[in-house]
Fold these 3 entries.
Entry 1:
Amino acid sequence: MKRIMRILHALLLSLFMFTGVFVPVVAENEDFDAFMEEEAKKIISADYGNFHFNVIDYKRFGLTKPEITLLHPSYESFAAEAAGMQESLDQLHQFDYNALNDTQQHDYLAYEDYLESQIALDQFPDFIEYYNPRSGKYSSMITSLTEFILYDRESADDYLACMEVLPRSLHDMNEFTGQQAAKGHFMPDNLLDETLTNMQRFIDQGVDNPLIILYDKKIDNLEGLSEEEKASYKERNRDLVLNTVYPAIQETRSFLETLRGSRSVSGSNFEYPDGRAYFEALATLKCSSDMPLDEKRDYLAKCLGELFQYQLTHFGNPLAKVSGFTTAEELMEYLSEHLEDFPEGPDINYTISYLDPCVANPNAMAYYLTPTIDSYSDNVMRINGDNVKNNLNTMFTTLAHEGLPGHMYQFTWYFSQPDTTLLRRVISAIGYGEGWAQYGQRIMLHRSSLSEANAEYQAITLLSAYTLQAYVDMLVNGYGLDAKAVTEQLEAVGMSMNEDSVKDIVEGVIYAPGQVLPYGFGQCRMWEFHERVRGSLGDTFNLEEFHLQILQHGQRFFEIVESDLQKYVESKGVEFRKDFTLFEYSATEDSTNGLVGFITSHMWILLAAAGLAVILGIGLLFLIIRHPPDQGQETG
């Protein structure tokens, strides 16, 4: 539709110019790059947190450091943000898309989608939860403070300034949350209990709080400070935590307790008058797709059915273990040596940083810290060391997802390309990002020590779990279905699950709407593209060329990716297939027919009915917990 509108715009422009009718002056296309760079600078400087995590040498980019603030939500701030983005969108539309070069056109489309999806979501401020323990902004803010990087003396001072303004931020968050609650928008009481418990545990840590311990360690490692200065920084921070931050959090606990029972719906957000419209906007952003909601639902249903049927014909030992590693360093080294068929990227410097015990959550495996725009070659992988030995298989897939060939590879590869612009370094498309990382997991499992059967079985089990949760999320939050109705829909795609098991999944997506969509929807689209391109090209299909087509224009909506792949396939003189079956071209030599296959297939169904919901519930929680702090780009 957008492409058609651009063509119509060009035709109308020509007509009006020919007839002498006045039209607005179209901006000179040579000014396009300058406009986009200024837009990037606006995004970087929009708030201090985004600024700090995006750039180190800000003066090099001609940036001015914004006022040091944290979160200060209000209905006015949402409206102002939407108005500012609409102004940027209107300015973008003044450029003649058809006169831009290929890189500029991709930047145009990526930014257009970014702005439109953000503007749409800003229309629903009542649905943005600040204290939800599963997906709230408060938890992200605290995590960002623990991950705050000290580059120099200035950033050490900035951190203390953040601590000083934290009470004001909590005050504004409380005021806004109270206004939401007055309209019936608030988290369920059991989530409130979880939030209050987490806050009290945070306070009860006293001087052993990570905000004190980690800052002390960072100050010790900061060059250019005398011992007396280091001691002074530590003392100031300790005093702020104990006498400023703790009282503000305690006050917030008391305030939130007064809102208990404020939620006016008993089920999902769909029950609110504008719940469906909100979820449509959320799904567009989370899926990196402007596909209508009905089509997204049907798409996930198709993919889930095909995944499940494929799984029934491929089985291995679900308990088989990846072997040959004892440390995360060994795992990362192995992954780096098995990147055949992925385009060569830059030399990557990465540090394996083990999470301090004071912040290490047993459910968190690892996460990747998105690098700053001026230091993309220096990367950090945060690792929970206890989980390396305890769950080697999950650590293997997590490092493939977060590291190689997942997020770290995708970011550094694209950032290193000579035509990658500043704007494209600071905006993202989370469905693409998570879809790519999920895609890489399956490939790398097949390059592990597992047999082909075991690798495929475990990979498809993971893919099925994410797709199942995404589909249930769509049904519950997009269409208001309850557990009974969801169970019936699952049966319609060939999955037989106990209703009580389904209830656990339904509860999980009610508590964190949209959280799993980038993973489930994103991975399906990536594998769809793989199968369609391979089916179109047949024997001439080249996996590295396919990966290059996905990677070379960075994170973007899937409709743009699909258009790029169509052009690529048609450049080979063949038509781009529209139909697909997930894993149509995967090996089937491990399939088993007859009685053994029947028993194995039904054994999976029985096991799924008893335990899949519990596993998925833990998986959903794991997804949420393992996310790094919000740095302007969502990376999980």
Entry 2:
Amino acid sequence: METKRILICTVILFALPGLIFARSEETVSAVRVETPPVIDGVINPDEYPVEPASGFRQEHPNLNSPAINETEVYIVYDDEALYFGIICFEKNTAGLVANEVARDAFMQEDDCINVMIDANNDGDSAYDLMINCTGNTYDGHFSQDGNVGGREWDGVWTAKTSIGDDRWVCEIRFPWDNMVYDAGSSKMGLQFLRFQQSDYEITYWASDGAYLNRVATFGTLTGLEGLKPPKRFTVLPYGTVRGVQPPDDEPGDIDRMAFEPDGGIDFGFNGGKSFQLNATFNPDYAQIEADPEVINLTPGIIYLDEKRPFFTEANTAFDNFSCDILYTRAITEILAGGKVTGKAGPVNYAVMDIQLEKDDIQFPGDNVAAARVKANIYEASYVGTKFVARKGYDGVAGDRDLSNYNVVGLVDVIFALPYEIDFKAEFAKSRTDWFPAAEPAESGRDYAYSVRLSRREPGFETAVRYDEMGENFQSDISYYEPYHKNDRQVSAFVDKVFHIYKGPIRDFKVFGYYNHHWRIDNVDSIYNYAESYADLYFTNGLIVGPYVSLGYDDRFYSYGLPRYPIERYGIYVATEGVSWGSASAFFWRGEYYETKYNDLEVDLTFLPLTSLQIELDTEFIDPIYQPADPEYGTAQDRLSVVANLKVTHNVWDKLYWRAIIQGDNEDDLYLGSFLVGWEYQPGSNAYLAYEEERLKSGRGFELADRRVFLKGSYMFSF
């Protein structure tokens, strides 16, 4: 029945006339130069002998009106790189905002420029670069109009900025080796966005302002003649030394630490947009320098961005919008792996195979394979299929155990329809047998599917979605909560911003969300939840708004927990677009999972120096009423405090240090870490990190665990 529903929806939508999203009429020409610009944040007219891209228009506050603060972009190139010289005119440079100093941080609340490059000029995917006024950078890659991709991709490029009396300036050197492109073409797709804080203005160069990252509506970069193919091969060897206190040590025993050296290598071959190959042998995936530190106070798992080189290169080819049957962060101890990605006409393809180490904790010695094919119907729309398989390993006989496996297949479709409406649908089916002696899982409920209809335009977004997951659906290399099995849910939200600009009030934002779950084999509702808030945005950067959520939840019945009421009322106060940093406080009172709380969350970020960022995230939980703890027989009613202090300092270009202290007085657990990172040449880096855990004991804190880590890598390109 489920398959029929998806097929009927697909046939109906195929019959609809496709709306073709044409390129914007905006065009800018690049000029080849013999002597490349010096990337120092100062634009010399002799370095950029070309007419700029200009005439930016507003997305906010007045759609399609001329920009309040003009922007000019000059573009030149040579055999090595593409160069951008960007002038952001600004009447109030003293009020520029640059609160983000960590690489790959989202910077829409800073004064920043955003450059998006459709290197293949096919209206499908783009490289995404962002630079704030003090030179901090973000990079990523996305396709299908931002439906897939994100900041996981990391490139090798340079940006410098400077601030003058009536402008700030940015220069970018983006090497051709970063890009997959057609060397025989003279054109690329291009889009520029600028976020300007003193006037709370967002401006763009191309498109119609309605959907700024719709690649098919980018403007055009012309004048690219005689481009050389990028370097074909990259080799990235690495070495590490890891010191770990053995886990059987008693707390306070700091005498022993085992040091383990290791090494591995990554290979890459760039055959252009039609073919790319990546391989890895014994890779190190500690990558402690890449992950954000997150305190998890929920019973669910945390999604972490993929930052490991083998996976991030061209990894958007494997993405789909909802059912994540390939969550690569679940793949850990790898012996070797290979990946082929590319494009043939309108078809994108990707194939990957990974052999795990025999000491892998979850799947020792197993093999993981994945394949993905997407066919573009027209710009921003596609149909695709995806397969992920895990094969078991018989450690006793040393042979492949074919009776221990998990295979998941998925079919998905995305249609971009008129009036900025998107339709998305996915259907997945699994086949699993975990143990040689076990029978295969029952058929009929080993499926999952999702259907979503959404509409998005400046200042407004709404969507309705239906999801269902059978009780026998199993996807071993995936990201989903176990309690979603045997579950149906429908959800909807609306997000609307009203631009007021009267007196001290700038904007008024209203958000509403509703979610309803019920069991497939039972009509009784198991989860019913609604939340809403309304925020006032003031011209001085202050945000104030009430919050309410109501419902009940018994999704965690599989953990032996009963139905819990949800009832929360609160208020949110925050700052936005201020130069000294940011602050927010969220207070709510109500009942959540059978406990009545006063809860206060406070987040502070400030910059005593432009290169030094201090962040403090705290939560104070005061139980008004809490049922007796089954283990101790009495209620645990003390004030619970969770805190996370993080300091990041950019010493100079490509060299930084970071210190983090975390504490939780309920578990009496305290964590501390210190990291020094240095990118000593493009694509090559070194990291030194130290981390320890301490447990409260009496009046002191005894050492429970400690780790030290040293890593170095060097990239060769030819």
Entry 3:
Amino acid sequence: MSQTQPIFILPEGSTRILGRDAQRNNIMAAKLVAETVRTTLGPKGMDKMMVDSLGDVTVTNDGVTILEDIQIEHPAAKMIVEIAKTQEDQVGDGTTTAVIFAGELLKNAERLLEQDVHPTVITKGYRRSAEKAQEILNNLAKPVTIKDTDILKKIAMTAMTGKGAEAAKELLADIAVKAVIQVEENGKINIDDIKIEKKVGGGTEDSELIQGIVLDKERVHSGMPKSVNNAKILLLDTALEIKSTETDAKIQVTDPNQLQAFIEQEEKMIKDMTDKIIKSGATVVICQKGIDDLAQHFLSRAGIYAVRRVKKSDMDKLTRATGAKVVSNIKELSKDDLGKAGTVEEQMIGDEEMTYVKECKNAKSVTFLVRGGTSHVVDEAERAVKDAIGDVIAAIKVGKVVGGAGAVEIALARQLRDFANSTSGREQLAIQAFADAVEIIPRTLAENSGLDTIDMLTDMKSKHDAGMEWAGIDVFTGKVVDAWETGVIEPLKIKTQAVKSASEVAELILRIDDVIATSGSEGGMPPMPPGGMGGMPGMC
């Protein structure tokens, strides 16, 4: 009797995980990612210290920063990291919330898989739950506009509570709201119009909002004035120097007089350029390219302040702050191209000279200067400020906000359970699992604050049943309070985006029943360790 030969369809060295094992492996990886950032959630969340291969240290409790810094190799875990990145891009905050929620959705799905509920039934239930959750959240939310500065300030403070900049959160929240209101134009807000400049030196409370732009540049010549009042600003994106020929050229000089004539002609060309600038009435020149030594000399003699090699992004911000037009051809320069600023001056911040273009009238681009005692403090303060600005903009754009402190999650879970009771069959189990997963946020808040999770959740639910719409956890007193009254307010977009991305990724992971990892780097995934993620110590 002939024996059947085995048939190999995959290259040698490939690994393949099938069926329930594949699902279990992927869910485990996703849960581990969620567990990594879970302890950072809330005002009493802990920080993580990441040390890279060069020995550079990052101390933060910002979810997306942690997940980007640890090198995750497991493909399913990478999908969870993508949730954090999407949340960061769309809102700027709530990354930890989204990741924890996705992890809990998968954990609850695993329980249903063990009860022989089919993955497609779970994904269908999750999809219906996510749609219903969006509807519930929109109904729970309250309206907000750019004029509600008090609510906006509370949103910014909520975003910064528990971060490294918490000590100065009132000042920073105030600056963040002022910056957003300042750059708003015809109902549109571009986050790029708020430049965040960080500098070591002083304390976080020394941070300030500058009505204009701070450039990381010093004046090009020591003979130039250090400060210019009522500045007329010229923005140049052409070099104030003689251009070299585009192709290699050979010039033969037979007479020393010819060489002298060459030099004199160059000087005349540079003098003509600087004369044109002086004649326009400009008192400050900001150049995107180089400024020749001779041009620096002529400008300094005319009492003009000049900086060079300024980034294009900063040039764009300067046009919005000063009203100047970027000039590409000096021959066509006119007074109408100039912008205005109250003061342009050079200041020493820490050990660096910086140029302040400030007191611009009706500036549509501003600078948030973040200060701190050490580079780690400044970096964490910058992340807190970015979260605050992102939250304020998200609140204004959508025009709706909700109470934080776990209040909105309890209300959402409550209504999802009512929705589950109106359905039938096994799908009902998936909707209930989704509702249970929503409660991971208040549960984690209580856990990270050292409170009894069962007591807190029971207390919150009974307060909601009694009609307290925004009953949430005050992590500092350990009591259930009205989150709205306490000033713990978040933009609706944080919650809707977290629900959307977390449920979509959970559905995607649940539908995978076969993981094929080819060896070698040609178009394949990195080979997976049998039970965990590479690059994450202690997680294998």
